[in-house]
Amino acid sequence: MQQSITSKLRTGLILLSLLFSVTDAAFADDYDDAVSALSDGDYHDAYQDFKRLARRDHVEAQFQLGMLYLFGKGVGQDSETGVEWLRQAAESGSYLAANELGRIYLSGKGVARDEQEAIKWLELATEIAEQHEGEAEDGCD
After folding, report:
1. Does residue 138 belong to any structural domain of this protein?
2. What's the sign of the alpha-carbon dihedral 47, 136, 91, 84?
3. What range does the domain containing 123 cover?
4. Does any domain span residue 26?
5. For position 23, which CATH number holds?
6. Is residue 59 pLDDT above 70, yes or no?
7. Which residue has the higher pLDDT, 28 or 35?
8. Is residue 140 part of a domain?
9. What distance in Å separates the CA atoms of residue 81 and residue 72, rounded to the nearest whole number?
């Protein structure tokens, strides 16, 4: 009896891991499609793809969506919404989003200029970068 429960649990865990692998692969494919649309200048499709992924907590898509809103590409320009998407991405660990927020608050483009807020986001960007230091070099000769 105990062995059959353990066996079923093990099988269930394997199936769950396969499901997450398939989901991760689908996310990667969807993200690649969105990046391709963006690089082809098809901002509307890029916006649609990034928005779908961003709503599902895809951090890189949240950053890209924020940038599309800031520049009005594929969607009407909306600094407030753009900053909000960047904020979500930064709080989820995006160095690029945190750095961009720091630059935005330093310049005052689309937001009230706020040096304290800029410092907060630039410090977060530094923290994120330090946490991931060396990852890009892993496996390099």
Report:
1. no
2. negative
3. 2-132
4. yes
5. 1.25.40.10
6. yes
7. 35
8. no
9. 11
Give the chain's radius of gyration (CA, Å): 19
Distances (CA, A) of 121 to 97, 98, 112: 9, 5, 15
Residue entry with tokens 């199936």: 15
Total domains in the fold of the chain: 1
| 127-133: long-range contacts, CB 8 A cutoff, minimum separation 24 | 128/93, 128/94, 128/95, 128/98, 129/95, 132/95
Calpha distance 100→120 (Å, rounded): 12
Task: Provide the 10 A C-beta neighbour count for residue 120.
Answer: 16
For residues 1 and 93, give the distance between their C-alpha atoms in angstroms, rounded to a whole number.
45
Tokens of 83: 């900053």
pLDDT digits (tens, 9 = 90+) for 85-110: 999 999 999 999 999 999 999 999 98
1's CB contacts (< 8 A; 6+ apart) are none
How far is 80 from 110, CA to CA, in rounded Å? 7
Distance from C-alpha of 110 to C-alpha of 85, rounded to nearest angstrom: 14
Q: Which of 36, 34, 27, 66 is nearest to 50 (CA)?
A: 34
